[in-house]
Amino acid sequence: MSKISYLIPRRTFLRGVGAALALPSLEIMSPALSYAKAAPANKALRMAVLFKGAGVNPSSWDITGATETDFELSKLLSPLEKNKSDIVLLRNIEGSGKGGGHESATVNFMTGQLRKSRLIQRQSFDQVIADHVGKNTPVKSLQLRSDTYLDGNDPAENFLSYDQDGKALPVEDKPEVVFNHLFKGFHNSGFRQHTKSVLDEVKESYAAIARKASNQDKQVLEQYLQSVRDVERDIEQFSAQNNPVRDARLREIRPVPAANNLADRTRAMLELMALAFWTDMTRVCTLIMAHTESRSTFEFLGINDELHMLSHFVRTRNRSSGLSGYDKINHWYVQQFGQFIDRLKSLKDADGTVFDNSAILFGSGIKHGDYHSVSDLPLVLAGGGGGKILPGRYVEYPNVPNGNLHLKLMDIMGVQREQFGNSTGLLTGISEKANLAPKYVDDGSWKIVKESGNKIQLKGMLKISVKADDLNLYLVQLSNKQQLEIRPSFGNVHNLRLDACVGSVVDMEGEFTVKDGRKIITKVTRCKRL
Amino acid sequence: MKTTLMALLAFWGGLALAGADIQPAAKILNSRCLDCHDAETRKGGINLTKLLAADNLNEPKTAALWEKVDHVVRAGEMPPKKKEPLTTTQKVQIAKWYQSTYVLKDGREHIGQTPLRRLSRYELINTLEDLLHLSLKQPYVFSPEVPALLPSTLETILPPDAPGESGFHNDAAHLAGSKPPILKYSQAFEYALHTFAQDSEARGKVFGFKEEPVNLADATANKILQRFMKRAWRGYRNADNEQVVWRTYQAQRKSKAPVPSLLHAMKIVLLSPAFVYRIETAKDRGTPYRVSAYELASRLSYFLWASMPDDELFTLAESGELLEESLLSVQIDRLLNSPKRLSLAEDFAGQWLGFSEIVSNRVFYRNENWNRGVYDEVLFFFDELIKSDRSILDIIDSDWLYQSNYTGVRTGGSVHSFPLKHQDIFKWRRQRPKGIRERFYDPPRLIKIKSDQRGGIITSVGILRTTSAPEKTNPIRRGVWMLDKIIGRPMHAPENVPALSKSEKVDGKRLVDLADILKAHTSKAICISCHKHIDPIGLGLESFDPYGKWRTSYKNKRPIKAIGQFPNGGNFQSPKEMKQILISEYQKPIVKNIVERLFSYAIGRKIQPYDRPAVERICAALEHNKFKMNTLIQEIISSSQFQSRQDSP
């Protein structure tokens, strides 16, 4: 019941935030709704992105020994146990480039390409969708953040959504402001009428000024007119829509309470997303739950270190909360995701529940928190997608660019496009069973190929093993069931991007020593994914 | 040699003509630079072969690379020390080519196209306050439930601005690049006018009457609106636009009482582009020409107050006297004596140095007094530079500072006899709403420092905290911050190199001291090019813990070693010595950086190559005048960029 309980009456909200937050007197807290003749609501599909940056500990995230329909959840995914039949777990979907810095992690996640410059990127996939479906709703799309703003060197990290010109769309981080934005204004017919008449006069004022403006100023002023027209169009659309279902739902909306800390803010934002979807105020929404370089601390979990620092768990091994803190935080985020799924399932829609008509992508722009690999991104897809998502599965793809996933999400939302970012085609195995053959079959050739002195060449499946007291261990699985340990230095893994090869069969060369009769590779000189 | 170079440049600057010949410069690059920077070797990622083949010199990447070439040649950074230096003639030839191509236009200085400026959210709220005689901002109320400064109602309606290329929210190009949020404007103005309508004092000032009259003569209403339009549009005159407002009023009068009709007309005044934009009259000229007195009044008030001109400025604009130089400088002094100058500390310095995050970013919240005290220390410090006309180098180190009782940091200085003027300032922008009791709060006091642990903004608790994790300092973050914000050399996190590792080993031995780890890490060739600049500064600040307190050892009892060496060889043993090296060895870049930041903020755009002559003049004037803050402000206002317009680049 905890999901409903944080919907509280307005007075509680105001008391919580302090009298100074008293809302403008736009007579909207008690909307005077227009009761029009009922018209059947269209089946509205919704799409949300929950971005939890800063990667994961692969050993705690990855699922092993599973088939498409028979799988056990890993430690980090365990909060989704009750949602096993609601989700599709995606493996081996990868971003562009080879990983590396933080700058591209967010942009890569949303565009399937590396960051273009500090300020301008390519259009993000959610906005491609919003361009198509956003015109049906009062708010085209919502961009939210529950993590705090990041004063990084690179503005690109602060945004998920980029418009057609590649400009970052502003992100709102105060739940009360989002609430005002969504639920105050348009659905009051008096407000609509007043605004419309004011705008007529504003257009006249614009015309008077534009007539006398210089050519260069005119170009900038033109946007003012454009913006006025946008509002007019939105008002007209809202008035014409006669959506009694929406009107009835809007009447039930109660303000979300003030957010006291990161946990509350995250829940408030997710609740607002759920309500926005339910009332069909918008159909596209992105939420930054955690930045890749997040400076948030998690006192409510007993963790006083910054998430970003913890995510570099190989290098910060001596920190107090260490790996366990990092896992705990990621576990908590997955929990929030699970609660969001439950919340959407509790909201009835014209056809089933809001969840049935949604596609929710949860994940991070990098895999390994410390090495920033962009292969095998941690991704979970949830929702019924209006029948276009077949949930309850675990799909191990051969390495597929994330642009293919973007294309598939567009497709689910009814947007046809040939190509996006790094895409090579539409991702299959989402609407239907993937029935993929295992990516690698042990054909008996996984073995040591050459050995001379301390030099070694071998072929086998590369695995990672992260334990609290052994953070940087890699293993190569051979056909004879033997697992060869690789204990490289940090720089070695980083420079060779060894982490990006985990889960693949590799052709590897390196140097080894022998300890207790076991060969241990101490330095990798070459590693190629086969 | 430097003087000769400058003199020669000045000479050629006057003579150079459009379409300068690239050949002499190209020849020098070909013979002296391509060994390392051709398309194949591309040392440092610099490809000069491509640069020389570029057909469009105005293409941003090409222009930026030429700027870099010009800079490294002028600064003597290239060719590298081990190679034979360029001759003076060669240097001049490159400089001349660059100057005539990118700095000058037809051989003359120019200021580029003047952008149309839209009010930033901060400016808009200030302007509404001054225009309507209201207090619309949030007082300093930290709610423990929302561990940050509460947003004002207007801030919950109007969306925040994102900083543009200039680094500031008032960047004209960036504001022009995003659509004005009309619906939010409409809601914000509705709220402001609603507040105004309930405030009899404010109403009296705008309407001239406190009691609502049953009938209002058209002539009186017209006069009220005329006056309001003139103030709201800051002297911009447009008869058609005035007609729109008047017609609105008359239409409203048919069904409404006088005051609601006036309020409606006022809303149209505010929603007019003439309010939201600072419209100036263009003469369609490609060369700089002076703006009108009204336009200058707005430029002044938005630079120094981030708000609209007051009555005195309007009067001087009306008479045209503001354009007289002697009067202008009197007005600048007056504006800087007003508490409204706080916007320079709050908006300009707050964004530049990022210290406003102390009160806006929840991750830095400790308790109300601590956050407020820490924030005020920096805010008052910056304001003191203006108030007492101190040297801008005091930002690096000073023998005075503002100290709060709530930060737990004691400097052991003596309290200046000072009339607590800042309390007035404090109340000016952020008044308590009526009926809410002022909690006791002791603002920071100006003290004369005795110990040499402190001084300057860079070792203030606010800056040290925002550049640290809660329980651990981050020398790299501190170093990068200093290079970017203070020295003006932004660093970008590398995409491909391993970051600092605790497992750094030398000869199989694990290193324990941070300084040694950094050294081992950064001795790698790929790292050193950046870390030789970052590390000394970061290490020099290790004497301060994450909360800005002085410390002599880490938690594990290991002693702090704030020892380091700058790339040019300057050694230091303490933060104080490090700061002294910054002031003596890095003075030029620091001064240039501060000039460019404030200049950008003043003119609402990024500094361009053609602004160089102006920047150089301001730097020179500062050097002659002990780097005084008010010299900097006066010089910026004297510049053609500030006082003139130009209509094509």
Q: In the residues of chain A, how many domains can be counted?
A: 2
First-residue to last-residue Cα separation of chain A: 50 Å
Helix count from the secondary structure assignment of chain B: 31
Strand content of chain B: under 5%
What form of chain A results from the Cα inertia axes?
elongated
**Count of helical stretches of chain A:** 14
* Helix/sheet category of chain B: mainly alpha
Strand order of the largest sheet of chain B: 6-8-7
What percent of residues of chain B adopt helix (DSSP H or I)?
40-55%
% residues in beta strands of chain A? 15-25%
The mean pLDDT of chain A is: 85
How would you sum up the major sheet of chain B? 3 strands, antiparallel
Quickly give the structural class of chain A: alpha/beta
CATH topology descriptor of the largest domain in chain A = Alkaline Phosphatase, subunit A
State the share of residues found in helices of chain A, binned by percent.
25-40%
Overall geometry of chain B: globular
CATH hierarchy class name of the largest domain in chain A: Alpha Beta
Average pLDDT reading of chain B: 85
Main interface: chain pair and counts: A-B, 86 and 84 residues
Radius of gyration of chain A: 25 Å
Can you describe this structure in just a few lines?
The complex is a heterodimer of chains A (530) and B (649). Chain A has 530 residues and is α/β, with parallel strands linked by helices.
List the helices and strands and how they pair.
The complex is a heterodimer of chains A (530) and B (649).
Chain A: H1 2-5, H2 10-17, E1 46-52, H3 58-61, E2 87-94, H4 105-111, H5 125-133, E3 142-145, H6 175-183, H7 189-212, H8 215-241, H9 244-252, H10 262-278, E4 284-290, H11 307-311, H12 322-346, E5 358-363, E6 379-382, E7 393-401, H13 402-412, E8 448-452, E9 455-467, E10 470-477, E11 483-486, H14 490-496, E12 505-515, E13 518-529
Parallel strand pairs in A: 1-4, 1-5, 2-7, 3-4, 11-13
Antiparallel strand pairs in A: 2-6, 5-6, 8-9, 9-10, 9-12, 10-11, 12-13
Helix pairs in contact in A: 6-10, 7-8, 10-12
Chain B: H1 2-15, H2 23-32, H3 34-37, H4 48-53, H5 60-74, H6 88-103, E1 117-118, H7 121-132, E2 142-143, E3 148-149, H8 153-157, H9 172-177, H10 182-197, H11 200-207, H12 218-232, H13 239-253, H14 258-271, H15 273-276, E4 277-278, E5 289-290, H16 293-304, H17 311-319, H18 325-337, H19 342-353, H20 357-360, H21 368-387, E6 400-403, E7 414-415, H22 421-429, E8 445-448, H23 461-466, H24 475-487, E9 505-506, E10 509-510, H25 514-522, H26 525-540, E11 564-565, E12 571-572, H27 575-585, H28 587-603, H29 612-624, H30 629-638, H31 640-643, E13 644-645
Antiparallel strand pairs in B: 1-4, 2-3, 5-13, 6-8, 7-8, 9-10, 11-12
